[in-house]
Amino acid sequence: MTIEVRPASAFADVRAVLGPKSATATVCWCLSHRIPSKLDRTLRGPARGEYVAGLCRTSPPPGVLAYDGDEPVGWAAVAPRAATTYARSRTIPHVDDLPVWSLWCIRVRPGHRGQGVSHALIAGAVDFARAQGAPAVEAYPLDSGGARVDTTMAYAGIRANFERAGFVHVADTTSVLAGRPRVLMRLDLR
Question: How far is CA 180 from CA 71, 84, 87, 106, 145, in A?
């Protein structure tokens, strides 16, 4: 399998990775950390997908997609931290005033897991942020201590995968996901 990572500007491909099986279902669509919670609560069913379709038409688009040939097999959300709810987080600290980008969600489609897609997504998200002028990329993965994590709750990523990509632990957080602490990790791009 050869994985190529591209900007997420094709909504149909984003929908293939993030969208619900039923058009009327309300799923995350990777919006919960991108938009204010009040707006997140008001967008229901198809309105969520329509909102994401609009994001795919913006520059820069809302993240990156991994492809195996022409098939979209994974997603990573990456954007300036200032444009996310992490800008106001009480559980994920700010370590300085650097205008970092946040990489907060990694999703690999069933049938493609365990094949290096998440590693390609992390590298592709970093390249994407670098191309947009990001001085650094932060991530807030689970510190699983090597234990398996439920795939639904592993969207934040796993610390070891970010370490493998060159990220370093910068700070502990008070955020917990799937019963595991999250850590703040950063890759300096300067």
Answer: 32, 22, 22, 17, 9
> What is the mean pLDDT of the segment spanning 47-54?
96
The two tokens of residue 180 are: 């595991």
Query: For tokens 């967008």, what's the residue?
Result: 43
Cβ-contact 132, 87 below 8 angstroms? no
| pTM greater than 0.85 | yes
Q: Is 114 left (phi over 0), alpha (psi -120 to 50) or beta?
A: left
Phi-psi region of 157 (alpha: psi -120 to 50; beta: other; left: phi over 0): left
Distance of alpha carbon 80 from alpha carbon 133, whole angstroms: 10
Residue 177: phi, psi to the nearest 5?
A: -140, 130
Chain-centroid distance of CA 21 in Å reads 21
Residues 78-91: b if buried by 16+ CB within 10 A, e if exposed: bbbbeebbbeebee
Mean pLDDT for the stretch of residues 24-29:
89
Q: Which helix (H) or strand (E) holds 173?
A: strand 168-177
